[in-house]
């Protein structure tokens, strides 16, 4: 397989709850223009385009074809990827495959979500219909409001079982979830592309937000955002023509577990926080990347945490610390931008969630840290290797990408 | 070029979407069991896991689970959450009172069943509690025959 580097990144100028001033294709084009302007490339330099966003979310089922000319894809190979919350990273992986295989040299990956345009509940229905079926199968009265509480807000309800199990097994308390939300909203205040920013966020302030489904409070939950992200990937030879410094893909991996609502009503798993896919995919990725001890060799982590506790939980799952250790690292300040294991300096998904971009942004944010281009939210330590985690599917699907500052050696 | 802030279309689609989900033979058997207030699961011939509700495939070893078994009415509360909101047609509203939803591992079962937990104050609920099934008086083979679980 050939090495693949990230040679350009483009974001929409802002990620906010409602982009009222532009339509979907226009908003996407802003990120494409930003990627072109950052690299000096243009449509003629792109061999193929991969596109990703959530199924049905804007009521547009084939947005990649609708926006085809806005994403410089006319006359080129074009495909759309949709895997749920992980979509952005799955699209990135597809772009990687295009080049690693030798088929193409320069590929543009376009991801977006404009959640304000449609009804996310309707969009989620396309995903949670099977979840509702699983609940019916589990004997829950889905017509009653409390039954729906288990999947309230799409995944907040189901996620509360996960958070409950995480607290039970790790020894962490709800106050650690409060602090993680506060930490990331403080980080978000330093990221111009973040949505919910609060430079003065504290665990105490988060703790004042109402409970949705214990132990999840409103303050632990991601917003719905409008925004787009583009990454341009290139082979080693093409990258040398385009840029002096790229962030290089050292490994990609993904894994799913049981399709039945994923660790909520999963027929054969009793622990909703077990999340074997994260353990399996991260181990595979480290092996492919030649990483023996991620704790020592990985400098920076971006975790997909639609809910604040997931940053802590997944640090443990992907081997960045021992089980029950993440909240202690948080207490010691190690997860901060100045810490020894900085996580989500971007503010994470808990601060910004234009879903199609969310797993992609974990990768691009790792790339910016490696390239030293993260600006105000650049972490203090040098970043040579970073790991990006995506979470989604029907809550049971995980994607992993390992990046490095040099092309991977065979 | 600036656009007016709030120019949008709101198409009203003159259609009514209805899903008709066929539950298949496994859930049909499960609901038949409800008529006699029995809880059925399926056992894997490969690894012996017992899934409740019953299902065709064992995800662990990918074998067809042909054997139906009755499991106990009592079990352990593996996990729970306390709901503070309800959701109706996509809109969140405060719940009348906090309610408990749990994952219950029944005796002889190796999987957890999602169920309401009642007969106890939410603040008293603990992981690891022993709970038992509470049925509606008249069981008709419907999902809601198995009403909730309460502490033993
Ligand atoms: Zn089996």
Q: In the CATH hierarchy, what is the superfamily of chain A?
A: Thiolase/Chalcone synthase
Mean pLDDT of chain A: 89
Overall shape of chain B: it is globular
Shape call of chain A: globular
Residue fraction in strands of chain A = 15-25%
Radius of gyration of chain B: 21 Å
Provide the CATH top-level class of chain A. Alpha Beta
Report, as a whole number of angstroms, the end-to-end distance of chain A. Answer: 9 Å
Fraction of helical residues of chain B: under 10%
Quaternary status:
heterodimer
Number of domains of chain B: 1
Task: Explain what this protein looks like in three dimensions.
The complex is a heterodimer of chains A (410) and B (152). Chain A is of the alpha/beta class and 410 residues long. Chain A has one domain: Peroxisomal Thiolase, Chain A, domain 1 (3-Layer(aba) Sandwich), CATH 3.40.47. Chain A has 15 helices and eleven strands. Chain A has helices at 24-39, 63-66, 87-100, 120-137, 145-149, 156-170, 174-188, 203-207, 236-242, 276-289, 294-297, 309-317, 326-331, 348-351, 355-371, and strands spanning 4-11, 48-52, 78-81, 106-114, 211-214, 216-217, 226-235, 247-256, 300-302, 385-392, 397-404. In chain A, helix 2 links the parallel strand 2 (48-52) and strand 3. In chain A, helix 3 packs across helix 15. Chain A starts with a strand and ends in a 6-residue tail after the last strand. With 152 residues, chain B is mostly beta strands. Chain B has one domain (24-151). Helix content of chain B is 8%, strand content 39%. Chain B is built from one helix and eight strands, in the order H-E-E-E-E-E-E-E-E. The longest helix of chain B is centred in the first third of the chain and has 12 residues, at 24-35. The N and C termini of chain B lie far apart (69 Å). The chains are: A alpha/beta (410), B mainly beta (152). At the A-B interface, helix 4, helix 5, helix 6 and strand 5 of A face strand 4, strand 5 and strand 6 of B. The structure holds zinc ion. Zinc ion (ZN) binds next to loops of chain B.
């Amino acid at each position: 397989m050939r090495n693949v580097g990230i040679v350009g990144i483009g974001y929409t100028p802002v990620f906010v709850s409602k982009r009222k001033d532009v339509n979907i294709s226009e908003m996407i084009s802003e990120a494409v223009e930003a990627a072109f302007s950052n690299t000096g490339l243009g449509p003629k330099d792109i061999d193929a385009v991969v596109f990703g966003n959530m199924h049905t979310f804007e009521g547009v089922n084939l947005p990649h074809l609708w926006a085809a000319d806005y994403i410089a894809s006319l006359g080129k190979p074009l495909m759309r990827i949709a895997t749920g919350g992980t979509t952005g990273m799955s699209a990135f992986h597809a772009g990687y495959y295009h080049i690693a295989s030798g088929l193409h040299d320069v590929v543009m990956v376009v991801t977006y979500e404009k959640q304000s345009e449609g009804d996310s509940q309707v969009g989620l229905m396309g995903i949670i219909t099977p979840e509702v079926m699983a609940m019916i199968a589990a004997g829950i009265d889905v017509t009653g409001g409390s039954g729906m509480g288990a999947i309230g807000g799409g995944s907040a309800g189901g996620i509360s079982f996960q958070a409950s199990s995480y607290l039970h097994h790790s020894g962490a308390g709800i106050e650690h979830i409060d602090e993680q939300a506060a930490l990331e909203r403080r980080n978000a205040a330093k990221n111009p592309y973040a949505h919910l920013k609060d430079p003065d966020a504290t665990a105490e302030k988060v703790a004042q937000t109402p409970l949705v489904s214990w132990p999840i409070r409103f303050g632990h939950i991601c917003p719905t955002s409008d925004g787009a992200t583009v990454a341009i990937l290139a082979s080693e030879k093409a990258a040398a023509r385009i840029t002096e410094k790229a962030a290089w893909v050292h490994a990609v991996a993904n894994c799913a577990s049981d399709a039945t609502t994923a660790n909520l009503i999963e027929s054969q798993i009793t622990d909703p926080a077990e999340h074997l896919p994260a353990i399996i995919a991260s181990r595979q990725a480290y092996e492919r990347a030649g990483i023996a001890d991620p704790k020592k060799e990985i400098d920076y982590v971006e975790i997909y945490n639609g809910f604040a506790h997931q940053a802590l939980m997944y640090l443990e799952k992907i081997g960045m610390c021992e089980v029950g250790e993440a909240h202690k690292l948080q207490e010691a300040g190690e997860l901060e931008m100045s810490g020894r294991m900085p996580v989500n300096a971007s503010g994470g998904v808990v601060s910004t969630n234009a879903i199609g971009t969310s797993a992609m942004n974990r990768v691009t944010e790792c790339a910016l840290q490696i390239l030293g281009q993260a600006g105000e939210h650049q972490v203090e330590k040098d970043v040579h290797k970073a790991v990006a985690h995506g979470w989604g599917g029907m809550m049971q699907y995980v994607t992993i990408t390992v990046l490095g500052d040099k092309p991977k050696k065979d | 070029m600036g656009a007016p802030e709030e120019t949008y279309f709101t198409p009203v689609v003159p259609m009514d979407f209805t899903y008709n989900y066929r539950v298949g033979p496994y859930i049909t058997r499960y609901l038949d069991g409800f008529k006699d207030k029995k809880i059925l699961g399926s056992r894997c011939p490969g690894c012996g896991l017992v899934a409740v509700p019953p299902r065709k495939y064992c995800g662990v070893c990918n074998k067809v689970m042909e054997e139906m078994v009755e499991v106990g009415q009592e079990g352990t509360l593996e996990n729970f959450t306390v709901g503070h909101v309800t959701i109706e047609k996509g809109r969140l509203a405060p719940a009348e009172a906090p309610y408990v939803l749990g994952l219950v591992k029944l005796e002889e079962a190796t999987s957890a069943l999602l169920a309401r937990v009642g007969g106890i104050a939410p603040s008293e609920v603990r992981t690891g509690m022993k709970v038992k099934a509470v049925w509606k008086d008249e069981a008709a083979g419907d999902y809601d025959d198995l009403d909730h679980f309460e502490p033993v």
